[in-house]
Amino acid sequence: MLTSRGMLWLLLIVNGLGTAYGYLWYGQQLVETAANKPLWMLPFVPDSPTASLFFSLSLIYMLLPNEPATAIGRSVRSIVEALGVVTSVKYGIWAVAMIVSGASLGSSTGWQDWMLIVSHAGMAIEALLFVRFMSVGASALGVATVWLLLNDTVDYRFDVFPWLPAPLYDYLAVVCVCTFALTVFSWVVARAAIALRDKSNRT
Fold it and tell me: Which domain holds residue 79?
C-alpha cells in the first residue's frame, strides 16, 4: 500500500504543499538574512522545508518507472534520498522538541503550533517508513550527515538558525548542543533502518 502510485502521489502533493508553506514561513527570516548576512548563508536558513523538498524528490524517484541509467545518476538519487531521510528525521523531531520546550517555558501556543507539531512528526515517521523502499546506502547517508553538520555549524556560528520560541533564547547553548546531537541521532537511526532493510532483502 505504501508504494502504490496513489499513495505516492498523495504524499507528494502533501509534502509539496508543506514545502511551499515552509518556505513562506521562513520568508521574513530569509529577507532579514539577505539584508544582513552574506548571500551564501541563505540556503542554510530554511531547514524543514528543504528537508521536505528532498523527501518530495525521493517520492518522485519512486514514481519514475526506471532507475537512473548512469552511475552518476544513481549516486545522485542515493544522496537525494539520504538527504530526504536524515533531514526529515532530524528536523521533524527538532521542530516538535522546540515547540514543546518553548511551551513548557511559558511560550504561548496556537493552532499553528499544533499543526506544525503534527506535520513535523509526520516528516520523521514517513522518512523511516519509506527508507526501506529507497536505494540510499551508507556512503550517501554519510554525505547527508556531513551536510547536516555543516548546516548546524553555519546556523549557530553565524546566527542563522531557525527563529525559536522566545524563552529558548535563554538556553541557546543547550539548543545548539541538542541540535548537533540530534544530527548524530538521526544518522544512527537512519543507518539502523537501512541495515534492517538490507538484512531483510538478504533473507
Answer: 5-202
